[in-house]
Amino acid sequence: MRRLTPFTVAALAFLSFLPVPNRAMADESQCHHAMSLVEEPKYAPDFKNFDWVNPDAPKGGTVRQWANGTFDTLNPFSDKGVKAAGLGLIYDSLFTPSFDEPSTQYALIAECAFYPDDYSSVTFKLRPEAKFHDGQPITPEDVVFSFDALKKANPFYAFYYKNVEKAEKTGDHEVKFTFDTKGNRELPMIVGELNIVPKHYWEGKDANGNQRDIGKTTVEPPLGNGAYKIKSVDTSRKISYERVPDYWAKDLPVMRGQQNFDNLEFTYYRDRTPAFEDFKTGRIDVWPENQAGAWATQYNFDALKNGLVKKEAIPVKRVAPMQAFVFNLRRPQFQDPRVRQAFNLLFNFEEANKKLFYNLYERVDSYFANSDLAAKGLPQGRELEILNEIKDEVPPEVFTTEWKNPVNAQEGDYRKHQQEALKLLEAAGWKIRSEDVEDPNCGAWCKFKKTIGLSSGSTARVLRNDKGEQMTVEFLIQGDTFERIILPYVQNLAALGIKATVRNVDDAQYKQREDNRDFDIIVDSFPQSNSPGNEQRDFWGSAAADKPASRNTAGIKNPAIDKLIDKIVFAKDRADLVAAVHALDRVLLWNNYVVPHWHYPYERLAYWDKFGRPEKLPSQTSGFTQVWWYDDAKAKAVEAAKGK
């Protein structure tokens, strides 16, 4: 979901209360120990621990994991460089999510939060015991510095917190954030997501006497305040974290029974194959599987047959992200929505699902799939009212037809969709021509026969516009996971004269090209929470379209969508929010900005049988690094069996 850190989307609300003394610093009289936009937080202010943890879970052991590609920076806050895996482990935020309650957070560095009824500000009361790994306390000055420095260092934060006017110290343990608008119920909660960094560290100098800069890359392990700190680094190859024994929050109810492993290691591999081989032999302990074909066919090795490795599909109830082939609308060939719709008609998901995915996946049919936020049927009620306000700015089908992906269930279906795609392309000004092409396999004898008329040249279908330009597209990918999926798609496109190619680049080049919008089509994913809000501006808002490294990779600039996002951000209650999200979902779909992929409502996890876990897991994630633990007895049994 790219994040459950400041990069993750969250939402907010107003519910549980703590009585507090009379105060001059704010008008509000209640201090919220938890915030939720969906429903009342489950746990009262005096709760002892979450019910999805084992509060007495043992601490210890090492977990060895893998990461794909490489990394060159240990600074997760800058927009520069390729970040190492797991950096979020070393930082805490003001509030922290509950992994069993959608869009709900509980106080962590902050003890509680105050905000007025009009949501014009939020004030956090900090815990006096909160401290960094060097023992220095977390102060209001650190919070203010974190907010200002992160906004300056990374356009993401500047955009995400654009409605936060200022942060200021209002007491020895208090920080107030003032907003430039009223009625945005999400703002107190997204400010609560803010990771807090040490001002004294980032304003100081490194071991070489150089001034540190949070806006730049670094291979110096930064000072944190979370449950883990960096233990060792082999740049681009491996990073290890160790649990902080005197972690300041280890006995708080929000952290009890969590972060139980002594060490977490991430070893980098250039591709999946050697990493999976190391998992099979026990050099990697846990394997999150993201390939349906591999899940169905590659788990037949001896350790699994003998019960030393466990394989599970763990159900999760979170909103399914819109993973898709994303068009770069900045490219001229994609500016006509009929062309984009034709591309969706030419993607044969059912064939891919059968041949590559063992029919395990469901096609994504919404930007908020697997939730009540997905638009269904035709608009009515409050949603229809919202859409009528922008009726002349959206496709007419929004009001008349339920959007659906093409389905190739029977023989002949794909041929029908191919014909529909051709009509759309022709209507958009693209025509198929039969043209002579060079045959790379035609040698001297072949060419001689052509010269004397004994054979004819090769011809191919070519799609051109009225300027004579051929329709060409390049799929930009990193790694080999999607290549086997895209290549059949390339053939389908070629049948209508579209020249499509695949370019596989390394992580650094991919990030550079994505950030600079130097691509035709990429694979991207847009994770959602159960309470969408400000992050929608970064995904689809016009202001984000031209910002390098924003999440608006498609380059959407649509005034109607901007208006719908504002309806979401300023929704007065849950019903109003759901109606606005339905409207946004419908308009995004009918503009055909992407070719939707698929989702799977489970986490596929394989692991060596060395671990224990709570009887109940959180509903939003398997929670492996959060709530599982190392079981010494099981680990010894596994090692003994491996030695036989």
Please characterize this protein's 3D structure.
The protein is an alpha+beta fold. Helices cover 27% and strands 21% of the residues. It has 21 helices and 27 strands. Strands 21-20-22-16-23 form a five-stranded mixed beta sheet. Strands 4-13-12-11 form a four-stranded mixed beta sheet. A hairpin with a 3-residue loop joins strand 11 and strand 12 (238-243). It is globular and about 90 Å long. It starts with 17 loop residues before the first strand and ends with a helix. Residues 1-27 have low confidence and may be disordered.
As residue ranges, the low-confidence spans are 1-27
* Percentage of residues assigned to helices: 25-40%
Number of alpha- plus pi-helical segments: 21
Radius of gyration, in angstroms, nearest whole number: 27 Å
The major sheet is characterized as: 5 strands, mixed
Please tell me what the overall shape is.
globular
Query: Which percent range describes the beta-strand content?
Result: 15-25%
Chain-wise SSE layout:
Elements: E1 18-19, E2 30-31, E3 34-36, E4 62-68, E5 95-97, E6 104-107, E7 110-114, E8 121-126, H1 140-153, H2 155-160, E9 164-171, E10 174-179, H3 187-192, H4 199-202, E11 228-234, E12 238-243, E13 263-269, H5 272-281, E14 286-289, H6 292-297, H7 302-305, E15 309-315, E16 322-327, H8 337-345, H9 349-355, E17 362-363, H10 381-388, H11 397-400, H12 413-427, E18 430-437, H13 444-451, E19 458-465, E20 472-477, H14 483-494, E21 499-504, H15 507-515, E22 521-526, H16 535-540, H17 542-545, H18 559-569, H19 574-590, E23 594-596, E24 598-599, E25 602-608, E26 611-612, H20 624-627, E27 629-630, H21 632-643
Parallel strand pairs: 4-13, 20-21, 20-22
Antiparallel strand pairs: 1-2, 3-6, 5-6, 7-8, 8-10, 9-10, 11-12, 12-13, 14-25, 15-25, 16-22, 16-23, 17-24, 18-19, 26-27
Helix pairs in contact: 8-12, 10-19, 18-19
